[in-house]
TrEMBL record:
Keywords tagged on the record: Signal
Residue ranges that the Swiss-Prot or TrEMBL entry lists as coiled coil: none
SUPFAM superfamilies attached to this UniProt entry: FMN-linked oxidoreductases
Protein name in the entry: Glutamate synthase domain-containing protein
Length: 121
């Protein structure tokens, strides 16, 4: 094994460890929100955001909604909290396929903004 392939392997494992740490966050937050008796949890995609976010925060932070939704669903189910809340998702849902993927990952409600507005002209 040469030095290049070894460094790529080390980088891959480092990236995986970092992503595993990041993926825990949506589920932990969702569990806390469910325990606080919220009725809905919205999981948004990494390229969406709030008007209060900085441009660099919106463009350089976060994860795709699929990962956040899957982690949220799993954490709520494992902690017996899933029946307490409805899961919503939004952020770049553009096709029926996106809605089906979100539904299969646990979402019960779906948000659309940009696509319908563009269609209206």
């Amino acid at each position: 094994m040469d030095a290049t392939s070894h460094s790529h392997a080390a980088l891959a494992w480092t990236t995986r460890r970092l992503l595993n740490n990041l993926l825990v966050v949506p589920g932990v937050v969702a569990a806390g929100v469910a325990k606080a008796k919220s009725d809905r949890i919205t999981v948004s995609g990494h390229d969406g955001g709030t008007g209060a976010s900085s441009w660099t925060g919106v463009k350089n932070g976060g994860l795709p909604w699929e990962l956040g939704l899957a982690e949220t669903q799993q954490t709520l189910v494992l902690n017996d909290l899933r029946s307490r809340v409805k899961l919503q998702t939004d952020g770049q849902l553009k096709t029926g396929r996106d809605v089906m993927v979100a539904a299969l990952l646990g979402a019960e409600e779906f948000g659309f903004a940009t696509g319908p507005l563009i269609a209206l002209g």
